[in-house]
Amino acid sequence: MKDLSYIKQHIHIMLTEKRYQHSLGVQKTAVHLATLYDVPVEKARIAGLVHDCAKDLSVDQLLKHAAQFDIIMDDLTKYQPELLHGVVGAVLAKDLFDIEDIEIIDAIRYHTTGRSSMTKLDKIIYLADFIEPSRDFDGVDLLRKAALSDLDKATLLALEHTIRYVMNKGKLLHVDTIHARNSLLLRQDGLEQE
């Protein structure tokens, strides 16, 4: 893997200044959550910094990368190709920064949608993206508080916030988000193990 200063320098070039500052906020928040939940801090640091590396790419660029890297798109992603930024970002993390750690790659890949049986690192990056210091929306303080005491509860709250937001916008829900929520509910009821 490339060293952190190299990655940071290139992420700064790849993103708008606002998105770069957001990525630094996600990184800082992810590191804090990693210390609370006994997750390797360096993994959280890298995933937090790199999670949006493909976010500022145009739809055409995302589609070109998807074709170049043989990314298979589901019907929803074909309809809303901006959802590709997590999947393309995961591939770019490997290609540009030599990140091979599958936990980091998966946390980048699923930071927008979540997935069934999310790892602690998945949850941390998903939440850090949601609650980093520059985020300002109704309920963010409740999510920040929940994130400090119960990772699963906070992730469930964030997923449900996303679901309500997407439904209110009249957009399609990604099936991974539904699976992520259901998986956490099953775990909460003791029906799914971590």
TrEMBL record:
Any Pfam family the entry gives: HD
Enzyme Commission number, as recorded: 3.6.1.41
GO MF entries: bis(5'-nucleosyl)-tetraphosphatase (symmetrical) activity; metal ion binding; nucleotide binding
Signal peptide: none
Keywords: Hydrolase, Iron, Metal-binding, Nucleotide-binding
Domain of life where this protein originates: Bacteria
Domain called HD: residue spans: 19-134
Catalyzed reactions: P(1),P(4)-bis(5'-adenosyl) tetraphosphate + H2O = 2 ADP + 2 H(+)
The name this protein goes by in its record: bis(5'-nucleosyl)-tetraphosphatase (symmetrical)
Organism of provenance: Geosporobacter subterraneus DSM 17957
